């Protein structure tokens, strides 16, 4: 049953990819899209649109969406908090602060540069959250991690705003990254983030059984032979790899990692061995559909995908949490 549902989810993702390649300010027939893949003709204007503009943003959408879906599922399972999202460990705040410093202090102006600084900032912020959450007895419990993440995020965002308010040039460059977008990112940038995302995805998919055991409580996990502290470190490292690279790649996109795991658990239940692969497939489908909507609702211009995901995700999330039969963590 669940295996057939996953196959259906892959079909939905394939349709979203085709829509992302074919639909925009200039619509491209599906047969042209197929010919671009099978028999590319550089002299064909429509095929050039597909290869130079839409293919890179589709690849970025696939990578960032899959990473955010996995990271959101990991965070909700790790903290046992159904409202947790990839930003809970301070990842988004750390990436934003690092990008601001890169622009304002070092003069970095390319997305290729943002990737490295954003990833480093996300990793350092997550490490700081884990260190703060480890103080006191019982180590880094879910509640302490959530509180530490909120505190670190608030502090980093305060520093970020202070830098932006004092430097209008930095603000002008940063705001295009902060809103979240798939446009303007080349395949080279995706290739830079790809190895981190691949390692993070493999680690996330291998952590399903760990999360199931942690969901029983620390005492039960120890009784089943699992070290809760090491399991949390492993899952947290996966979140950093996934969310750090995705945030650096596409900006701090909201609601993808928060909404999709809830929707998935409505029909898979709380078993993370299924919620993780489902989220990895459906999150990029949602992100690509949101990107396509952003292209068509304001032709010939477009609305950034970060705005569209917020508009779509907020009411969907409210509807999901109000359902009485929504699967619990």
From TrEMBL:
Q: Which InterPro entries match?
A: ABC_BtuC-like, ABC_transptr_permease_BtuC
Matches recorded under Pfam families:
FecCD
Protein's recorded name: Iron chelate uptake ABC transporter family permease subunit
Species assigned in the record: Streptomyces evansiae
Keywords on record? Cell membrane, Membrane, Transmembrane, Transmembrane helix, Transport
Membrane topology annotation: Multi-pass membrane protein
Q: Which domain of life is it from?
A: Bacteria
The primary site where this protein sits is membrane
Annotated compartments = Cell membrane
Q: Which residues cross the membrane?
A: 58-75, 87-108, 114-133, 145-166, 186-208, 229-256, 276-298, 305-322
Into which family does the record put it? Belongs to the binding-protein-dependent transport system permease family. FecCD subfamily.
Q: Indicate whether Acetylation appears among the record's keywords.
A: no
């Amino acid at each position: 049953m669940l295996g057939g549902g996953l196959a259906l989810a892959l079909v939905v993702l394939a349709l979203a990819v085709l829509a992302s390649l074919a639909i925009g300010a200039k619509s491209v027939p599906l047969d042209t899209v197929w010919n671009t893949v099978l028999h590319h003709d550089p002299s064909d204007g429509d095929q050039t649109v597909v290869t130079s503009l839409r293919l890179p943003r589709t690849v970025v959408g696939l990578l960032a969406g899959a990473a955010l879906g996995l990271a959101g599922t990991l965070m909700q399972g790790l903290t046992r908090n159904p409202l947790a999202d990839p930003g809970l460990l301070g990842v988004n705040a750390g990436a934003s602060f690092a990008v601001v410093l890169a622009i304002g202090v070092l003069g970095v102006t390319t997305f290729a540069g943002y990737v490295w600084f954003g990833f480093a900032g996300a990793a350092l912020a997550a490490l700081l959250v884990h260190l703060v959450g480890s103080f006191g007895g019982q180590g880094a419990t879910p509640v302490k991690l959530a509180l530490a993440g909120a505190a670190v995020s608030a502090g980093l965002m305060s520093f970020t705003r202070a830098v932006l308010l004092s430097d209008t040039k930095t603000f002008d460059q940063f705001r295009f990254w902060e809103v979240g977008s798939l446009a303007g990112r080349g395949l080279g940038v995706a290739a830079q983030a790809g190895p981190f995302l691949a390692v993070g995805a493999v680690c996330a998919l291998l952590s399903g059984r760990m999360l199931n055991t942690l969901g029983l409580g620390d005492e039960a996990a120890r009784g089943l032979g699992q070290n809760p502290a090491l399991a949390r470190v492993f899952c947290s490292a996966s979140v950093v790899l996934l969310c750090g690279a995705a945030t650096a790649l596409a900006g701090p996109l909201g609601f993808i990692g928060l909404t999709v795991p809830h929707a998935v658990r409505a029909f898979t239940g709380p078993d993370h061995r299924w919620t993780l692969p489902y989220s990895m497939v459906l999150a990029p489908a949602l992100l690509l559909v949101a990107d396509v909507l952003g292209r068509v609702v304001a032709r010939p211009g477009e609305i950034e995908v970060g705005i569209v995901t917020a508009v779509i995700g907020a009411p969907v999330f409210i509807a999901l949490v109000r359902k009485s039969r929504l699967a619990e963590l």
